[in-house]
Design goal:
By secondary structure, the protein is α+β, with helices and mostly antiparallel strands. The protein has 9 helices and 6 strands. The model has no long low-confidence stretch (mean pLDDT about 85).
């Protein structure tokens, strides 16, 4: 996803989450209560924060962010999401953002605080490595129209649990509300699968199944040289260096 496209859609998406008409009052919940709420979320290497949707800034960031990502709490700003997000996760992040907007827009006022949002994306740590963070968030304050004022978020490092794969979004219902797990993310910003011809998709499908060029040529009744040409063309179109990358991204992004 092109950086300018991501910046544009990121800002466009978050205009919905910004509450410019209502300003939250003094922070009513004590930090001790946040710590109690923390126990509701997945344990592990985590840090928590309170996002103010009026100022699009953080009212509080726990000091444990330095242990998890290497950044001081003062470095964890709203722009952090934009700057440190893994480039391959940017289109997914935009997609899940719009899906969250769609979901919250359908909820009645009394149900807004009965759902926990959960998704995973990768952030660049201070040492340059990427960590897959599981975000879990709940609304802790909203105005009379349903627009958000504050949300409590917990980021947990789950790199050891999930090495590969696309981000996954879920809405976890509380107080008897139904849950919606692994929401299908349809996104026009994902890399287009239409870049490939029908024949290239056939070759790619067989590559994903683990077939060699010679086997593919026999199955499709074409020469091995033609199969290799299709492979090279797909690598060129996606600017990849080898077939392993092609297969991995095809699985991750659903190119067939």
């Amino acid at each position: 996803m092109k950086p300018k496209t991501f910046d544009k859609e990121f800002n466009k998406m978050f205009t919905w989450f910004t509450n410019e008409t209502s300003e939250p009052g003094l922070l009513k919940l004590e930090l001790d209560l946040y710590k109690k709420l923390w126990s509701f979320f997945l344990a592990g290497d985590s840090y928590y924060f309170v996002l103010n949707h009026h100022s699009l800034d953080f009212d509080f960031v726990s000091s444990s962010v330095e242990n998890v990502l290497g950044y001081a709490p003062t470095e964890f700003t709203f722009e952090f999401i934009n700057e440190k997000l893994h480039p391959d996760d940017q289109p997914w992040f935009v997609s899940l953002g719009y899906k969250v907007i769609e979901f919250l827009s359908l909820l009645s006022l009394e149900k807004l605080m009965k759902y926990k949002l959960r998704y995973d994306v990768r952030y660049r740590k201070k040492n340059g490595e990427y960590a897959r963070m599981l975000y879990q968030g709940v609304i802790i304050e909203h105005d009379e129209t349903g627009r958000l004022l504050r949300t409590l978020g917990i980021n947990t490092d789950i790199t050891y649990l999930k090495k590969e794969g696309k981000p996954v979004l879920s809405f976890i219902g509380m107080d008897g509300e139904p849950s919606y797990i692994n929401i299908d993310l349809q996104n026009t910003f994902l890399e287009s699968r239409e870049d490939f011809t029908a024949r290239e998709k056939e070759v790619l499908k067989l590559l994903i199944e683990g077939k060699l060029s010679k086997q593919i040529s026999s199955i499709l009744n074409i020469s091995k040289q033609t199969v290799d040409t299709h492979r090279k063309n797909m690598l060129h179109k996606k600017k990849l260096s080898n077939t392993g990358e092609l297969v991995g991204k095809a699985i991750m992004y659903g190119w067939i």
